Amino acid sequence: MGFSTDAIHAGQEPDLKTGAVITPIYQTSTYAQEELGKHKGYEYARTQNLTRESLEKNIAALEKGKYGIAFSSGLAATNALMSLVKSGDHIIISNNVYGGTYRLYELVMKDFGLDYSWVDTSNLKNIDNAIKPNTKIVYVETPTNPMLTITDLIGVSEICKKNKFISIVDNTFMSPYFQNPLELGCDIVLHSTTKYINGHSDVVGGIVVTKSEKIHERLRYIQNAAGAIPGPFDCWLILRATKTLAVRMDRHEKNANKLAEYFEKNNKAKKVFYPGLKSHPQHELAKKQMRGFGGMISVDFGDIKTAKKVVNNVKIFTLAESLGGVESLVCHPASMTHASVPKAERDKMGLTESLVRFSVGIEDIEDLIKDIDNILG
Ligand code: P1T
Question: What domains lie within the chain, and their CATH numbers?
Answer without folding.
Answer: 3-242 (3.40.640.10), 245-376 (3.90.1150.10)
